[in-house]
Q: What sequence folds into this?
């Protein structure tokens, strides 16, 4: 809980608590601990009551709706039957995305400007491989200004 606090900050917080609560600080700490114990006891009583009513063993982690349904209401066969129609769709989308990812890698490798594959052409124009057809085309020469000619 106090992983991001160093000892000086914890000491400053304790000093601040002492200044705020004064001689009532031990009573405040006891009241806080008593409240925490009562909350834990209420949670364990609620899970015990729920386990007794449903006739199964329920832990506090099982109260999440997805985990509860998966553990207590569905068998493994039912869960597999629910997943089966969506599994084909999931596999199809995953293969499409991996194909697009591979294509993007190929295009990025072909047009990587940082690799120094650009060569200087006539009049300072650069030539670079085109990713469309895999052919090399020369870029259009830049328009020369009056200052370039003089």
A:
């Amino acid at each position: 809980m106090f992983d991001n606090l160093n000892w000086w900050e914890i000491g400053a917080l304790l000093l601040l608590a002492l200044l705020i609560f004064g001689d009532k600080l031990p009573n405040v700490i006891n009241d806080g601990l008593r409240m925490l114990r009562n909350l834990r006891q209420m949670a364990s009583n609620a899970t015990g009551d729920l386990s007794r009513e449903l006739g199964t063993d329920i832990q506090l982690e099982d109260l999440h709706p997805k985990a509860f349904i998966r553990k207590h209401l569905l068998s493994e066969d039912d869960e597999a039957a629910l997943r089966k129609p969506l599994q084909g769709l999931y596999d199809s989308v995953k293969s499409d995305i991996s194909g697009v990812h591979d294509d993007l890698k190929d295009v990025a490798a072909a047009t990587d400007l940082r690799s120094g594959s650009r060569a200087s052409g006539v009049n300072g124009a650069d030539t670079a491989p085109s990713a469309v057809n895999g052919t090399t085309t020369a870029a259009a020469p830049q328009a020369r200004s009056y200052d370039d000619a003089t």
Remarks:
- The chain is about 60% helix and 5% strand.
- Residues 107 and 133 are 11 Å apart (CA to CA).
- Residues 76-110 form the longest helix (35 residues).
- Strands lie at 119-120, 126-129, 136-138.
